[in-house]
Specification:
The complex is a heterodimer of chains A (164) and B (451).
Chain A lengths: L5 H11 L11 H11 L6 H11 L3 H8 L13 E6 L2 H5 L2 H12 L12 E6 L11 E3 L2 E3 L4 H16 L1
Parallel strand pairs in A: 1-2
Antiparallel strand pairs in A: 1-3, 3-4
Helix pairs in contact in A: 2-3, 3-4
Chain B lengths: L17 H6 L4 H6 L4 H11 L11 H6 L10 E6 L8 H8 L1 H15 L3 E6 L4 H16 L4 E4 L4 E9 L9 H8 L23 E5 H13 L1 H5 L2 E2 L2 E2 L1 E8 L5 E6 L4 H6 L13 E5 L8 E2 H5 L11 H5 L2 H4 L7 E6 L4 H15 L5 H18 L5 H14 L7 H25 L3 H4 L18
Parallel strand pairs in B: 1-2, 1-5, 2-4, 8-12
Antiparallel strand pairs in B: 3-4, 6-7, 8-9, 10-11, 10-12
Classes of the chains: A alpha+beta (164), B alpha/beta (451).
Bound molecules: flavin mononucleotide (FMN), iron/sulfur cluster and FE2/S2 (inorganic) cluster.
Iron/sulfur cluster binds next to helix 16 and helix 18 of chain B.
Chain lengths: 164, 451
């Protein structure tokens, strides 16, 4: 059964109250973030339907938004999503090599997840960290000034965290 | 050392938090502004000559003057913290290290515009930055700078942080407004302008983070004093985010009187190019503005030293100049490939096009495909002209300026680096092994001398 905890339902209420009367749809993106964080890192159709119900809007209004924004995953992703930036400024600082290294290290192509379901590699466009390139987003944080050694230790860190 | 108005206190321990911020003169501008009338504040901003720091450089005071004030309809100030233009990461720095400076600017600006519910629309990926802002807002509220009846003046104001979810187009103000309403980020056809019908069809002002932060020193020192800093219509200070091949990437506050050469080579700023390599090219104001080869970057076509001001960077128009844009300053050393870089930008704009207008939706995809062919040794000479033709047909033919923003980088790359494109086409095998290199891009340009 898809349902937020009491705490999260309160958070939804609080988010909705930020916008004027009758404009509760404005809370859609913030609530979708909450839903994705809560339900395994992606937005399955029943999850989106649930969000629609909470905000008193139609499911199609949720689908059309969820499919527009690149942070919303409409398919399952690995526990650790490596979103490596490859736009110009990062490219000048070697992001191509970093992506290549991750592919070989994890044995995946762009967009794929490792067989154990732990890692997904997703090349993305500029994340606003161009001066600290190469970089990637991992969960709620940025990992900057990436090197092959750093990738090794991040993979190790994630593998260890997953085992616990 | 240049004047520091925004980053003056950035190095102080704990400045991210209220106590240190307040101890260092924080929130003085709110005390001052709330004793003025909203009109007087708008007047000071007009006098300051402040121009929007989001990219377009539109005079902020004038924009505020356009805000409609129909009786009984709430108005809103929305802070644009979407920051997604490649090369640009200055707003992140301000929000991450000086969140209270932005909050302070937002309170003064909200009072000036009559916004009781002000929103910060921040790009979704800046998760921790949004948390820092939420914390700063809570601190400000606890200390009586937000909420009901601020400083006993009867002015009520709340600030909310609203995270986006990954879409460059939501930096465009009408797309941002749509997104804030919980919709896809499809830009609106203007008119009506946001100043008349913006978010929830209410009069709305959208301003960049840095613009709103600059309101603090403007109120503290007075608009006329602020206007004395800089040259011409480039008043005050500007934040630049410097990246690419430089020794000291990061955020710099400049008064717009220094030369481009000083900015790149001085230790106070970028600190030169790593490993003593030579400068090949630069995109001085975010990925949408024209790339310039080294020779046209350091000197204008007239042979004068190029200055880091709105006018200086634009000197020569698009033929031989560029733009200040968002302040994303990206440096290329002699080993970089302009074709490959242009290809990544074409892919970026293709990915970010919202898809409403066919020239942008289709054209960005064609440009990416053609550039990919050239980059990977499968191009034809006629492809270069085809690229030129496509970009020309996108520019000016779309609902929002993303179309232009996608066209300009391709146009400028071909305009100034055509022989590098041709070399790729004519040497398909070699171009997979090595880059074209510096070639003649740093050679002095022949300037005709008047006799
Ligand atoms: C495609 C596109 C992306 C934009 N992205 C941003 C952005 O990330 N941040 C920003 O402040 N302005 C951005 N702008 C400019 C805004 O539309 C708007 O002009 C600006 O927020 C106004 O604020 P200002 O006058 O303070 O600069 C963008 C414009 C376009 C066309
Ligand atoms: S120019 Fe591109 S991004 Fe802008 S409205 Fe048209 S399709 Fe959308
Ligand atoms: S280009 Fe990679 S973070 Fe901006």
């Amino acid at each position: 059964m898809i349902k937020f905890s009491e705490d999260k339902l309160n958070k939804v209420e609080e988010l909705m109250a930020r916008y004027p009367e009758g404009k509760q749809k404005s809370a859609l993106i913030p609530v979708l973030h909450l839903a994705q964080d809560t339900f395994d890192g992606w937005l399955d159709v029943p999850v989106m339907d649930y969000v629609a119900e909470l905000l008193h809007i139609t499911p199609i209004e949720v689908y059309e938004v969820a499919s527009f924004y690149s942070m919303f995953n409409l398919k399952p992703v690995g526990k650790y999503l490596f979103e490596v930036c490859r736009t110009g400024p990062c490219m000048l600082n070697g992001s191509d090599d970093i992506i290549e290294y991750i592919k070989v290290k994890l044995g995946v192509q762009e967009g794929q997840t490792t067989a154990d379901g732990l890692f997904t590699l997703k090349p993305v466009e500029c994340l606003g960290a161009c001066g600290y390139a190469p970089m990637m987003q991992l969960g709620k944080t940025y990992r900057e000034h990436l090197t092959k050694e750093k990738i090794d230790s991040i993979v190790e860190e994630c593998t260890r965290a997953a085992a616990n | 050392m240049g004047v520091k108005l925004l980053l003056e206190h950035a190095h102080i321990e704990g400045i991210r938090f209220y106590d240190a911020y307040r101890k260092n003169g924080g929130y003085r501008s709110v005390e001052k502004a709330l004793k003025m009338t909203p009109e007087e504040i708008v007047e000071e901003v007009k006098k300051s000559g402040l121009r929007g720091r989001g990219g377009a450089g539109f005079p902020t005071g004038m924009k505020w003057g356009f805000l409609a004030k129909p009786e009984g309809v709430p108005r809103h100030l929305v802070c644009n913290a979407d920051e997604s233009e490649p090369g640009t990461f200055k707003d992140r720095y301000l929000m991450e290290f000086l969140p209270h400076l932005l909050i302070e600017g937002l309170i003064v600006s909200s009072f000036a515009l009559g916004s009781h519910h002000t929103y910060i629309y921040i790009r979704g990926e800046y998760v921790w930055v949004a948390e820092i802002l939420e914390q700063a807002i809570a601190e400000a509220k606890l200390n009586g700078w937000l909420g009901k009846n601020i400083l006993g003046t009867g002015f009520d104001c709340e600030i909310y942080v609203h995270r986006g979810a990954g879409a460059y187009i939501c930096g465009e103000e009408t797309a941002l407004i749509e997104s804030l309403e919980g919709k896809r980020g499809n830009p609106r056809i203007k008119p009506p302008f946001p100043a008349i019908q913006g978010v929830w069809m209410r009069p709305t002002v959208v301003n960049n983070v840095e613009t709103l932060a600059a309101v603090v020193p403007i109120i503290n020192m007075g608009g006329a004093e602020y206007a004395k800093i800089g040259i011409g219509k480039s008043t005050g200070t500007k934040l630049l985010s410097a990246c690419g091949n430089i020794n000291k990437p990061g955020i710099y506050e400049i008064d717009m009187t220094i030369s481009v050469e000083e900015f790149i080579y001085s230790d106070e700023y970028c600190g030169g190019i790593p490993k003593g390599k030579k400068l090949k090219a630069c995109i001085p104001g975010g990925s949408s503005v024209p790339i310039l080869p080294a020779n046209l970057l350091l000197k204008t076509a007239k042979g004068e030293t190029r200055i880091m001001s709105y006018e200086g960077l634009a000197d020569g128009g698009f033929t031989t100049g560029s733009m200040m844009g968002s302040g994303g300053f990206e440096v290329f050393d002699e080993d970089q490939c302009v074709v490959r870089h242009t290809m990544t930008l074409a892919r970026f704009y293709n990915h970010e096009s919202c898809g409403q207008c066919s020239p942008c939706r289709e054209g960005t995809g064609w440009m990416y495909k053609i550039l990919k062919n050239i980059e990977y040794g499968k191009g034809k000479i006629s492809d270069i002209d085809l690229l030129w033709d496509i970009q020309r047909k996108i520019e000016g033919n779309t609902i929002c300026p993303l179309g232009d923003a996608a066209a300009w980088p391709v146009a400028a790359a071909i305009r100034h680096f055509r022989d590098e494109f041709e070399w790729h086409v004519l040497n398909p095998a070699e171009s997979q092994e090595r880059n074209y290199g510096l070639a003649h891009y740093a050679d002095p340009i022949h300037v005709p001398v008047a006799i």
